[in-house]
């Protein structure tokens, strides 16, 4: 599921590289609009979009935001059909190789991760995410950058949803706290955001200090997911290549490894102090 597959999905969807979910959503908007006997100007005025933006959504060239969907549901009397597609529209903004993982995350009641190089996506500020995505090579177009930023921020709703309410644990290498992604101001705000996130009762953030010479996570980053049905998955990503493991024996070993990793990292309180010091030094 690497970058070659990413390109193949874009070329093979028959929409000039546009995600199928956007096209399907746009066709529904047009169907409901025409059924109501409205021009594009009517929903544009009601929703606060320009006529050109409404046309772009209908043609699948632009993803609809949640605010658009809620207004369109009301104006076009869509009966929940557009709302039902919003999750697919948001997910389609993610890189193709990551979309299956995003679907698994939606069903997870626990998500544990270990990150070595950068702040985890679920904890990133908008400015940090944008700066990070802009480092992609070959360079991405501005529109694609903004789509991926929007998708990353949309994923963060996992932290605040209530059905199902999930438990999150993050182990972050100290090096990620010192890497000045986006510059000093962006990084200072990012570290402050980490401290805000850790105040949520279902979120635990631990720092793995560089002084810990050896630990159980040196083989690389990982994400551990568990669903309400107690199905467990391990996600391993490197250089845009994602592997999802579901074998019970293999997954069990990763769970043991992660338990050891958490015991080797700083505890939550010491980690918060560590992040505060890093912010003060930034």
From TrEMBL:
Transmembrane segments: none
Top-rank taxon: Bacteria
GO molecular function, one term: DNA binding
CDD domains xref list: HTH_XRE
Domain DUF5753: 98-277
Family matches, as InterPro entries: Cro/C1-type_HTH, DUF5753, Lambda_DNA-bd_dom_sf
Name listed for the protein in its UniProt record: Helix-turn-helix domain-containing protein
Organism: Streptomyces taklimakanensis
